[in-house]
Amino acid sequence: MVGSVVEAEQFVSTKPNANGVMAAQILSVPEFDLAAVIAEPVPPLATTDTNLWEEDEEKKIVLGRNIHTSSLEVTEPEPNDDLTGDKDAYMASVLARYRKTLMERTKHHLGYPYNLDFDYGALAQLQHFSINNLGDPFIESNYGVHSRQFEVGVLDWFARLWELEKDEYWGYITNCGTEGNLHGILVGREVLPDGVLYASRETHYSIFKAARMYRMDCVKIDTLVSGEIDCADFKARLLQNKDKPAIVNVNIGTTVKGAVDDLDLVIQTLEECGFSHDRFYIHCDGALFGLMMPFVKRAPKVSFKKPIGSVSVSGHKFVGCPMPCGVQITRIEHINALSRNVEYLASRDATIMGSRNGHAPIFLWYTLNKKGYKGFQKEVQKCLRNAHYLKDRLIEAGISAMLNELSSTVVFERPADEEFVRRWQLACQGNIAHVVVMPNVTIDKLDDFLNELTEHRAAWFQAGKTQPCVESDIGRENCLCPLHK
């Protein structure tokens, strides 16, 4: 159980005794709190009967305060540690227990879009190398310990997926999904320097971060109940700024509801408002579903055969890379507006970061080769099937729930107990929470979650809690509160 105190473990150490003879000695590791290993900067639990679905001033995150929720102290080794090995043994014990904590946390992980089902044991042999992909992936720099050959292979795979020829694209493996969005919006800004950025209100926060970083005019567009961009409001906003080019973020799966913006309708709206193709730039944020949607029957296609400027996906989400990373692809004619020569590298650079993780492309290359298109298609079908199972079970239990047609993100009423939310690592917003069904989420795991949820929910209601109304969040047809049941 996370947060419980583990009894002190013992290990054998050798130290010289009073006569200078090496002797075995039993040492104890101090009691170790598993909670001290997991840094979860969450507000303290409410101690009153405050309605958990209402904004609570005491629970707001306060910036500028260095609150140590947990810390593993770094201490200096003893002078004779090379002889005794005490520090190595202690650190080994700490790491062993941390591994147990990770296993427990992985077991109860449902709210964030990470595929935790992977095995990269074959790549352990590479951990001894500092692999750094500096500069342009297509130009070799003076630094020779790189993985560009893997990186370009991965980029070629994604370019084919999104229907862009090898000589027509430029891209790179990013350090995270946010970097892909920052890069996509930056390219749009460089291509259309006076452009206005348009993004729906349910867009990932990184897009609005990009607007602040680049000092761009940003217009937030209303959304439908599904979370999809409202193209009627989009049209009205475009007409208010007809004199300026448009830089548009299109969501291929929104953060909370998993909604997919209608790319074709967005393009049609731009054209109807008089924006020629040289006066708009579209970045597609496909962090999670950008890799899933190509394998969903009847799903609209994200393709560079349409007038889009860039697409980004995360590598640590559906793919299942063990470290944060992503893929960013844009048209090669756009990148010259961004790239600069770097003599120090003997290369050109058009990336956001300088040093880039050279291990990430190898992990992505390994997975793409191992699974292939058919493997991903099977995993997508499994995720969608299990997501429908979860939604149906929630509704059967009388719990308000919604699942968008092209998504594996199941949205439901927010649990009334924040401890339960933390235990299952649920992502919450206002009155709703969600479970993102990834390949590692099995029916058995969903059953465990559902059983716990229904059991706790009965206790919450006995304690005086009432079922929240989520009509405004997921629509009247999906709300099972007493008013709409």
TrEMBL record:
<dbReference type="InterPro" id="IPR015424">
    <property type="entry name" value="PyrdxlP-dep_Trfase"/>
</dbReference>
<dbReference type="GO" id="GO:0030170">
    <property type="term" value="F:pyridoxal phosphate binding"/>
</dbReference>
<keyword id="KW-0663">Pyridoxal phosphate</keyword>
<dbReference type="GO" id="GO:0016831">
    <property type="term" value="F:carboxy-lyase activity"/>
</dbReference>
<comment type="similarity">
    <text>Belongs to the group II decarboxylase family.</text>
</comment>
<protein>
    <recommendedName>
        <fullName>Serine decarboxylase</fullName>
    </recommendedName>
</protein>
<dbReference type="InterPro" id="IPR021115">
    <property type="entry name" value="Pyridoxal-P_BS"/>
</dbReference>
<dbReference type="Pfam" id="PF00282">
    <property type="entry name" value="Pyridoxal_deC"/>
</dbReference>
<dbReference type="GO" id="GO:0019752">
    <property type="term" value="P:carboxylic acid metabolic process"/>
</dbReference>
<dbReference type="InterPro" id="IPR051151">
    <property type="entry name" value="Group_II_Decarboxylase"/>
</dbReference>
<keyword id="KW-0456">Lyase</keyword>
<dbReference type="InterPro" id="IPR015422">
    <property type="entry name" value="PyrdxlP-dep_Trfase_small"/>
</dbReference>
<keyword id="KW-0210">Decarboxylase</keyword>
<dbReference type="InterPro" id="IPR015421">
    <property type="entry name" value="PyrdxlP-dep_Trfase_major"/>
</dbReference>
<feature type="modified residue" description="N6-(pyridoxal phosphate)lysine">
    <location>
        <position position="317"/>
    </location>
</feature>
<dbReference type="InterPro" id="IPR002129">
    <property type="entry name" value="PyrdxlP-dep_de-COase"/>
</dbReference>
